[in-house]
Structures are given as C-alpha cells and as structure tokens.
Specification:
The chain is an alpha/beta fold. Helix content is 36%, strand content 15%.
C-alpha cells in the first residue's frame, strides 16, 4: 500500500524519507501499534504545511519521499530482516529517514545497520521507560529490552523522560545516572537537562529513538503504556532542536496505538514529523 505523507506526490529529489514500519510482535498490554503508520499518514494531509515558528514550508525546501507500507512476515526473525533491508536502503542513500513504527523493537535492527555507516553514532532515546531489561516474557529482543540490545552494540545512549522502570533495571538507575534524565528532573530544571542533552550529542552523528509515551498522556493518550507525568509538546520540541544541530542521520517514532474516533496522538506525531522537518530545512546552508 502506498500513502504519502501530507498527501503530496513524492519529490524527484528528496532529502527526507518517511518509512512506515507496521511491525508488531511483542506488545504486552494495549495492542495496535501495527496500525499506527497508516493512521499517521492518513491524518497528515490535515496539517498546515507551513511552519509558523520558522516561517518555512518544509516540503518545498527538503522534498519528501514516502516508502510503501510493506507487509511484514509472520516470522519474527524474517520481519527483523525486512526492517534491516529497509534501513540499509535509506542508510545507503544518505537521506534523513524517519521510521514510523510500530513497536519499539524496530530500533534495534535499524541501529544495527546505521552503526555500520556511522561508527561514532550517538543515540538519543526519548521514552517513559528504560527498555533495558535483559529478558522479558521469555524473549531477549522485544519492546522492553530493545535499548539494552542497542547498548550491546556499543552505541552510547542517553535516555530522557524516564518515569517507569522494573526492579531488574534498578542497578542501571543507580549506576548509570549520567546517561538518564528522568522526566521529573527534566521538568524541574529544563535548562540543565537540555545542556546535558547537548553535551551528550556533541557534533554527532546522532540518531533519535522517540517512543511517543515520553509525552504526558494528556497530550498523547494513544500509546500502549500511558505513564503519567511526561514531557510536554514544547519540551520535546526543544530537544528536537538540539538533535537537529548534531548531524542527525535518522530517527524512529514508535509505540503509537491508534484510538478509534480519537486520532489525537496520530495527529501529534504527524505534526512532530513536520516540525522536525522544519528544523532540518532551517538548518540547511
């Protein structure tokens, strides 16, 4: 199936690729993330294409290309390989790719590919959860273990917005405080938190993994595990501005669970894609 972001035709010379990933195998509570890419693309034509903050129309500057919505294999390992194949396609093209999930598990095969193209890659992880269990429900790779598997690739990870963790992750909370910014700390001292994000990213290259439950559920209710006390729209935008300054190569947006007749979260994500595109367009020489 082919459905384009903003409902616009694909650019003949795009700088940004939208890659839908309707991948869902391991969600353990509220299910439905596989429907998110389609629903996000469906609401996107209702956006204003003009960005009121930077006074720019991103698609006119960047050009967008939207990948077809593929059908994943019912075999978990084969489906992971399909994600890798798509990631390799766009890493080779050196386009800024926005991977639209789907569950958070997709970050691992994507980053496994991007690490080969960007050996000094740094990963900014926005999430309500650490996602660093060693195993969950009998599986080593799933939405609750994905960032642990990413760290095992020897990729540095800074996790921002955290406000829920398992007992198994207690030692990480105690011993790795320098690479975790809990939501309450970010909200209490936004300036210091943004400085920490900036210092971590440095000059990049950088990758952003954004689990939409990083937002407070009052702003993004359509997620699998809506944790109270999250970041606001404007706080996340300030983080995105720092990411764009750090040689960004790609990002994923994951864990949206569409709510029938209430597409608030899908619209927020479509708007988020447009905002980061505006920041990218503004940063071009």
């Amino acid at each position: 199936m082919k459905l384009n972001f903003l409902g616009l035709p694909d650019s003949s010379n795009p700088r940004v690729a939208l890659v839908p990933l309707p991948f869902e195998f391991t969600t353990s509570w509220l299910k439905g993330t596989k429907f998110a890419p389609l629903e996000i693309l469906k609401v996107s034509p209702n956006l204003e294409f003009f960005d009121e903050e930077d006074l720019i129309t991103p698609h006119e500057v960047l050009g967008f290309y939207t990948e077809e919505i593929i059908e994943f294999s019912t075999d978990f390992e084969r489906a992971l390989a399909q994600v890798e194949e798509l990631a390799k396609k766009y890493a080779e093209k050196r386009l800024f790719a926005i991977y639209i999930g789907g569950e958070h598990t997709v970050s691992f095969p994507i980053l496994k590919v991007y690490q080969k193209y960007y050996p000094c890659l740094r990963v900014l992880h926005l999430d309500a959860h650490l996602d660093q269990r060693d195993e969950y429900l009998g599986s080593k790779l799933n939405h609750a273990t994905v960032m642990r598997r990413v760290k095992e690739l020897n990729l540095p990870v800074l996790s921002v917005g955290i406000r829920s963790a398992s007992e198994e992750e207690k030692e990480i909370l105690l011993n790795e405080r320098e690479v975790i910014i809990p939501a309450k700390d970010f909200i209490k001292d936004e300036e210091a938190s943004l400085k920490k994000v900036s210092e971590f990213l440095g000059e990049g290259p950088s990758y952003l993994s954004l689990d939409v439950d990083v937002f407070d559920p009052s702003q993004a209710p359509g997620v699998g595990t809506p944790e109270p006390g999250g970041l606001s729209w404007y706080q996340v935008l300030e983080i995105l501005k720092l990411f764009v300054k750090a040689n960004p190569v790609a990002m994923d947006i994951v864990e949206v669970r569409p709510m029938p007749a209430l597409p608030i979260t899908e619209y927020l994500v479509a708007r988020l894609i447009l905002k980061i595109s505006a920041y990218l367009a503004k940063s071009l020489p």
